[in-house]
From TrEMBL:
Highest taxon of source: Bacteria
Topology in membrane: Multi-pass membrane protein
Signal peptide start and end residues: none
Organism: Bacillus methanolicus (strain MGA3 / ATCC 53907)
PANTHER family per UniProt: MEMBRANE PROTEIN, PROLINE-RICH ANTIGEN HOMOLOG-RELATED
Protein name as it appears in the record: RDD domain-containing protein
GO annotation, cellular component aspect: plasma membrane
RDD domain segment(s): 4-139
Keywords: Cell membrane, Membrane, Transmembrane, Transmembrane helix
InterPro entries, alphabetized: Pra-immunoreactive (IPR051791), RDD (IPR010432)
Compartments (UniProt record): Cell membrane
Lineage, broadest ranks: Bacteria, Bacillati, Bacillota, Bacilli, Bacillales
UniProt entry tagged with the keyword Aminoacyl-tRNA synthetase: no
Residue stretches spanning the membrane: 12-37, 49-71, 108-126
Length: 148
């Protein structure tokens, strides 16, 4: 199959970020209002007060990320909503079935490393192989769903 290049992958990432952000914001507002926690700011600095609200928001974001970026693509043949809309999908380079561990390694560990090194891991998709650092770490590639 034809590997997807940097531009189409960036487009899918943008779509996923918007969808994830909206879902995350809605869930956080619902949970925080049910628990009666508000995002209070320090009156002197204007910065958020670290407390239960921030911890709960981070926990919600992490669980949602596991569902959206790890569990859902395993169940939907390597596609998030952004990848579906752009006609691409993730697959293992050995063509075996995606597993939760493969996607966890790619999305949570690999992307963390790709980001920590100043996003250079993402830029590898510009190369001839069209695979990011997190693709190499997890043994995956992103391909078009139909021949291009």
């Amino acid at each position: 199959m034809n590997r997807a290049g940097f531009g189409i992958r960036l487009g899918a990432l943008f779509i996923d970020a918007v969808i994830f952000g909206i879902i995350s914001w809605i869930l956080e507002m619902i949970v925080l209002s049910i628990l009666g926690i508000s995002g209070k700011n320090n009156l002197n600095t204007g910065l958020p007060v670290i407390g239960a609200g921030i911890i709960i928001n981070n926990l919600i974001s992490f669980v949602l990320a596991l569902i959206y970026y790890v569990w859902y693509p395993v169940r939907s043949k390597g596609q998030t909503f952004g990848k579906k809309l752009t006609g691409i999908r993730i697959q293992r380079t050995d063509h075996k079935e995606l597993t939760f561990w493969t996607m966890f390694l790619r999305e949570m560990i690999g992307k963390l490393i790709s980001t920590l090194i100043l996003f250079i891991g993402y830029l590898l998709a510009l190369g001839e192989e069209k695979r990011t650092l997190h693709d190499h770490i997890a043994g995956t590639e992103v391909v078009y769903t139909k021949q291009q």
